[in-house]
Design a protein that fits this description.
41% of the residues lie in helices and 14% in strands. A seven-stranded mixed beta sheet has the order 2-8-7-6-5-3-4, sandwiched between helices. By secondary structure, the chain is an alpha/beta fold. It has helices at residues 5-8, 19-29, 48-59, 72-86, 101-112, 129-135, 155-162, 183-196, 234-237, 252-263, 271-281, 285-302, 334-345, 371-393; strands spanning 35-37, 95-98, 118-123, 139-144, 167-171, 199-203, 228-233, 246-249, 313-315, 322-326, 347-351, 362-366. The protein has two domains: 5-45 and 287-389, Aspartate Aminotransferase, domain 1; 64-283, Aspartate Aminotransferase, domain 2 (3-Layer(aba) Sandwich).
Length: 394
């Protein structure tokens, strides 16, 4: 029997771009001491108080079916967090709880796109974006954001691509670049969405990790609340990656239809997980700042290490738990550099090519190990890049 065209076409004939990561894991399994700076996984685990709340909820019997859109108390708490941060009136009717941010991305595109519609996204991008779009039967179209422009989206390119498209997916603070889109950029993107009648899908899972400037949710811009679907998650803000608890914020009607989708797909999120998320949210912004603090500290400590040389050029990181480094001066692609760094130095980073064509010749460093080991790895990466550059000039 032949599988569906849709399921076979998720990767569009390519791979998932994670070859370096898989090789690093295989080396570790074989006993090699590898410093992993690949995925966005906190080096601290979920706080014990959250785990206790989860345990207490499960032992208290919250293990059966729950309201599919999410428990009313959690939806209220998410709405309050969003309204506090954005000053946009938000109620539980605007909130759907999902099994993580990835499920929210899929559901948002299901809401916005029909089969064959064109769905836009900015390149560089989180690795699942094009596959998510193809999974709902839409056509994934990447719009490059260039390193020379600080990876801010090119508004003219977005406007050209928007003709006849149905949705635009953005992510700020951005994974993989660490860039925060400026207010002018977001105002321009919003204007394109209004002019061309696009849904804007805004991935804001890193909204608690802002190192410089401020995060502006495009839902807060004039005329955007009715056409914006915001994806959020407990994964990054509360170090709850494995709990799989996310949400979509959107117009009442969209959320009602998305709840119907949930009935026919995942049938909700476990009640004890939702109770733990509610407990976590009630710890307030100070708790989120504590979770984010190690990444701010490592970013601040690592940034000066890149000065005085050009072989490994740091893209200024204003948010998220990553550093994006331009290594084109070495003459290698991001993938070639990452593989050689892994083989020679036993340091694993993600090639820029894993995140789209626009990030070619770059590597992404996850700031997800303890400070001393992290800074040592960054220094060795810079030295390695400079050695390669020196070798090319001899």
């Amino acid at each position: 029997m032949e599988l569906s065209t849709r399921i076979r076409g998720i990767l569009d004939g390519g791979d998932d771009g994670w070859g370096v990561y898989y090789k690093a894991r295989a080396m570790k399994a074989a006993g090699v001491d590898v410093t992993e700076l690949t995925i966005g996984e906190h080096d601290i685990r979920t706080d014990p108080s959250i785990l206790k709340a989860m345990y207490d909820a499960a032992m208290g019997g919250h293990t059966g079916y729950v309201d599919v859109p999410g428990t009313p108390s959690l939806r209220d708490a998410v709405a309050q967090r969003v309204e506090h941060q954005t000053h946009v009136p938000t109620t539980r009717r605007n909130v759907l709880i999902t099994p993580g941010g990835q499920a929210a991305l899929f559901a948002a595109h299901m809401a916005a796109c029909d089969d064959g519609d064109t769905a836009l996204f900015i390149d560089p991008h989180y690795t699942t974006y094009p596959g998510t779009i193809r999974s709902v039967g839409a056509k994934a179209m990447a719009i490059p954001a260039r390193s020379r422009d600080g990876f801010q989206p090119d508004l003219d390119a977005v406007r050209r691509a928007a003709k006849g498209a149905k949705s635009l997916l953005i992510n700020t603070p951005n994974n993989p670049t660490g860039v925060i889109y400026t207010d002018d950029t977001l105002q321009g993107l919003a204007q394109v969405c209004r002019d061309e009648d696009l849904w804007l899908i805004s991935d804001e899972v890193y909204d608690s990790q802002v190192w410089h400037g401020a995060h502006l949710s495009p839902r807060a811009l004039p005329g955007m609340a009715e056409r914006t679907l915001v994806v959020g998650s407990m994964s990054k803000s509360h170090a709850m990656t494995g709990s799989r608890l996310g949400w979509i914020i959107g117009p009442d009607e969209a959320i009602a239809h998305l709840a119907t989708l949930s009935i026919n797909t995942n049938y909700g999120v476990a009640g004890f997980i939702q109770d733990a998320a509610l407990f976590a949210l009630r710890q307030g912004p100070g708790f989120e700042a504590k979770i984010a603090a190690p990444f701010r500290r490592r970013r601040d400590a690592a940034t000066p290490l890149f000065s005085g040389q050009e072989a490994a050029r740091l893209i200024p990181s204003d948010g998220a738990m990553y550093l994006m480094v331009d290594i084109r001066a070495t003459g290698l692609s991001g993938e070639e550099f990452a593989l050689r760094l892994l083989d020679d130095e036993h340091i694993a980073v993600m090639p820029g090519e894993s995140f789209g064509h626009a990030a070619a010749g770059h590597v992404r460093i996850a700031m997800t190990i303890d400070d001393d080991r992290f800074l040592d790895a960054v220094e060795r990466l810079i030295e390695f890049a400079n050695t390669l550059t020196a070798g090319d000039t001899q």
